[in-house]
Specification:
Blueprint: E1 7-12, H1 17-32, E2 40-46, H2 52-67, H3 73-76, E3 79-83, H4 91-105, E4 112-116, H5 123-132, E5 143-147, H6 155-166, E6 174-176, H7 184-195, H8 197-202, E7 208-216, H9 225-250, H10 259-271, H11 278-284, E8 285-288, E9 290-293, E10 316-321, E11 333-338, E12 345-352, E13 369-375, E14 379-387, E15 395-403, H12 406-410, H13 415-424, H14 434-452, E16 461-463, H15 469-476
Parallel strand pairs: 1-2, 1-4, 2-3, 4-5, 5-6, 7-11, 9-16
Antiparallel strand pairs: 7-12, 8-10, 10-11, 12-13, 13-14, 14-15
Helix pairs in contact: 1-2, 1-13, 5-6, 6-14, 9-14, 10-14, 11-14
Bound molecules: nicotinamide-adenine-dinucleotide.
The site of nicotinamide-adenine-dinucleotide has 20 residues, from α1.
Length: 486
């Protein structure tokens, strides 16, 4: 039986794209599964002038469009609406009154979640106003804040934002969303690592040769140049998603399976990450920008709409991370991400050390590789050494393969559903912790500032390839190669 949750959720930005596509369908799924039954209330608020009925229609339409279902009135009656300009302190009073009304109507015990699905420039203002205007409950079990990305644009802005949030919320009340942490196969990393004695024992420098994390996209910048040209792949994909995946891979075993211990173990790993000097950036990081494809049918980045003709922006990043911990000393973590690459995938390849060749095999033994494929389909592959079937005793690599089935997939919650549920349940295991975010920004800022100080010849990779040659050379210098070749 699902544990029924008693809470009020206030969605700021309630008429926005994210709310419509992801947030209401997620809440509806939680209702269908019985996590939300009688004691929940949902308030939508935004600048739009809507009646409660119109808002309920908006939610019904969202569920119709994205889930192809008719939401029942018993669900929709829990939704209410208040127009408010979040930059105006006076408007919060109306919101407060509605919160208190729903709190009584549905017996919500003063349990409150505030979800900021608004432009990042508003995050700090909303958090402060929630406190100053008295919207946080004083007698409930919890007040929690869910916050969308991006969390700052560099360390300084992230720290400032965090200070603003801290006026109203403690770290354990803040749920920073990184939807990669809500993905099934990212959550599977822990099960594989800590649930299998063989892997648990081998997850260290003694047995692991190198670790590779790839987040590749086939699309180009499309119509997002206004944002993307100031962010680049480094801030758009490395600082957040890639580093959060690395957190699960690099951490030690947590003392227990609680969010506090999980976050502490990840933080210890993040704190042992080496922040590079400009020379080390040049040695360990590669930036790229896409040119046209081989057949010249697609624009290069510099010819995309709204991209400045002399842009030095990175649409591709590959690099090597170094951890100073006992577990990972001298084990490179290679990461890469980029636009207009050969394939769209998110995957992790764990390359184990070469076995000792006892056999009369002339060829060296293949290294074992554990691949965790996150997207587009969940898959686990393990390539290991086995006997060749011919008369002579020779070896060859074989691959064991498991794929998430259609039935599994059908019952797997979407990341947003999981994140909303976990916040309601007070489980912060799959959210970004401030310490991790701060380290990731310091790491990324060091790279960005080294790049800002030097010019690079662009474009340096062909659309539809797997990135610049320099990214292959980065691994070749260490005697390694990218496992995934597109
Ligand atoms: P959007 O522009 O579609 O919606 C913004 C919402 O904010 C609207 O409801 C609008 O009325 C409200 N708003 C704007 N100014 C306001 C004000 N002064 N007072 C009160 N309300 C105001 O934005 P979105 O795409 O839904 O994105 C919301 C957040 O989610 C952003 O932080 C974004 O980075 C993040 N996000 C969005 C997506 C996505 O797929 N859309 C994905 C990941 C993260």
């Amino acid at each position: 039986m699902p544990k029924e949750i008693t809470t009020l959720v206030t969605f700021f930005g309630a008429t926005g794209d994210l709310a419509k596509r992801k947030l209401y369908p997620s809440v509806y799924n939680l209702y269908k599964k019985g996590f939300l039954k009688d004691h929940f209330g949902i308030i939508g608020t935004s600048r739009a002038d809507l009646t409660t009925q119109e808002f309920q229609d908006f939610v019904r339409d969202s569920i119709k469009e994205f889930m192809k279902e008719d939401a029942p009135i018993d669900f929709l009656r829990h939704f209410d609406y208040q127009k408010a300009d979040i930059t105006k302190a006076d408007d919060y009073a109306k919101l407060k009154a509605l919160i208190e009304k729903l709190d009584t109507e549905f017996a919500l015990k003063g349990n409150r979640i505030f979800y900021m699905s608004v432009a990042p420039r508003f995050f700090g203002t909303v958090a402060k106003s929630l406190k100053s205007e008295g919207l946080l409950s004083e007698n409930g079990e919890f007040n929690r804040l869910m916050i969308e990305k991006p969390f700052g644009t560099d360390y300084a802005t992230a720290e400032q934002l965090n200070n603003e949030l801290s006026h109203a919320f403690n770290e354990n009340q803040i749920y920073r969303i990184d939807h990669y942490l809500g993905k099934e196969m990212v959550q599977n990393i822990a099960a594989l690592r800590f649930g299998n004695p063989l892997l648990a024992k081998a997850w260290n420098r003694e047995y692991i040769d190198n670790i590779q994390v790839t987040l590749s996209e086939t699309l180009g910048v499309e119509d997002r140049a206004g944002y993307y040209d100031t962010a680049g792949a480094l801030r758009d994909m490395i600082q957040n998603h890639t580093m959060q995946i690395v957190g699960w891979l690099a951490m030690d075993e947590p003392a227990s399976w609680t969010d506090q211990d999980i976050r502490a173990a990840k933080n210890a790993a993040f704190n042992s990450l080496k922040i590079y000097t400009p020379d080390e950036v040049a040695e360990n990081f590669v930036r790229g920008q896409y040119g046209p494809d081989a057949a010249n049918t697609q624009n290069g980045y510099l010819n995309e709409k709204d991209v400045p003709a002399d842009s030095q922006n990175n649409t591709y990043v590959a690099g090597k991370l170094a951890f100073a911990s006992d577990r990972w000393k001298d084990v490179p973590f290679y990461i890469r991400t980029g636009k207009r690459l050969a394939a769209k995938t998110t995957r992790i390849d764990i390359v184990f050390k070469q076995g000792f060749n006892l056999f009369t095999n002339a060829a060296p033994l293949e290294k074992n590789v554990l691949s965790i494929i996150v997207d587009p389909e969940g898959r686990i592959e393990y390539t290991m050494v086995a006997k060749d079937t011919t008369a002579e005793f020779k070896t060859r690599p074989i691959t064991l393969n498991w794929t998430v089935s259609a039935e599994d997939k059908a019952q797997t919650p979407e990341p947003y559903e999981r994140m909303i549920h976990d916040t309601m349940d007070g489980n912060g295991s799959n959210f970004a912790d401030w310490n991790g975010v701060a380290v990731a920004w310091k790491f990324v800022d060091a790279i960005q500032s080294a790049w800002d100080a030097t010019q690079q010849e662009f474009p340096n990779y062909v659309s539809g390839s797997m990135g610049p040659k320099a990214a292959d050379e980065l691994l070749a210098r260490d005697g390694h190669r990218w496992i995934y070749e597109g």
